[in-house]
Amino acid sequence: MKAIGIVVEYNPLHNGHVYHAEQSRLATGADVIIAVMSGNFLQRGEPAFVDKWTRTKMALASGVDIVFELPYRFATGNAPAFARGAIELLDAAGCSAFCFGSEDGNMEPFQNSLQLIGRHRDEYEAAVKYAIAEGLSYPMALNKAYETILAGQSAVPVADLSKPNNILGFHYMEAAQSIGSSMDAVTIKRMGAGYHDETLDSQKIASATGIRKSYFGSETLDDVVGFIPEATRNLLLEWQSERKGFGNWESFYPFLRFIILRDGPSRLRTIADVSEGIENLIFRAAQSQDSFKSFMDAVKSKRYTWTRIQRMLTHILTGFTKDMRADMDKPAYLRLLGMTNEGRSYLNVRKKNLPLPLISKVASFSDPSLDMDITASDIYALGLGKGTDESKIGLDYLQSPIMADHFGSKSFK
Questions:
Q1: Is 10 annotated as a binding residue?
Q2: Is 101 annotated as a binding residue?
Q3: How confident is the model over 167-177, as pLDDT tens digits?
Q4: For labelling, which of 97, 280, 402, 410 has a CA lying 20 to 30 Å from the CA of 317?
């Protein structure tokens, strides 16, 4: 059986994601689609709208056959770390190719950009360091360095690395090259709204950002039903009826603020991504600000993007330190969240030859990275349940991998 891999967050899954899965299957002739999906905290440093189990159900109902969890260490990392962890897992899962959505929708510009940076690696890395020293954020420094090495080059098409999906796509390709993966790279042009687009319009494809903003602006799903599959709608309605609310930083802020005030700058300094004295600013902001939005306005600066600060805060909330991250350099397992019958058939054939352990029950495996995933899930449940007895803590030990009869099915076990 031929498998193609995709990297997803599904926060939440919408029509554009269904299109991506469908086109990935068509473009490669794959029998099985394997998704590596972030857990309960995401790459932009924020709690997921709904938990990983609900998003796994969305995936299995919308074209995906196997869902593996991207460990917390990579799921909450910057673009290169996020991409490296995901690509290593897809490679370990035996995918023949990986497919990413992009603004360019053409592989040639990405291949040219990868070759160009490879030929000028020392110059590129020096330009990144210089830009950061000048006060630019990491993403802006990467793009500035890229523009530097583009100057004076022959007029071949190159990827626009100012676009968010192009950036991730480039890093997926860079990661695959660095580990010597034999997977082919395939890209599908992103349709509809952009990654960061916060508005809904007459299109049937909106961004997940726009969908979340619409919900939090009205507290109803009525305005987004045209942009999401029926299965996503039903799962969101089920979630809404059973939980106190959807995941967002305002709900988690009281817990975050408590941790910041309790630990103080000296402890904050040990947390992953916290550097250059920003722990003092974070501490002062927590002393004075009683909402997440006002807290972020007090901390944000030209040097630190909103996303980078949110990643710091996620690590503060979960207690993820620099030392812990250093000990989790590579993915150590394939954590199965769910599969269809086709996915199960694929794993039955492959599982004895997988280079990483296949984990379906967390109690059967011990690893610091898995411990961190479980901790992050429990903290997510605590914040989501607002610390009441409705918080579904310990779910990783209670929830077995989700089974769906077939992609597109709405029947789960």
A1: yes
A2: yes
A3: 999 999 999 99
A4: 402
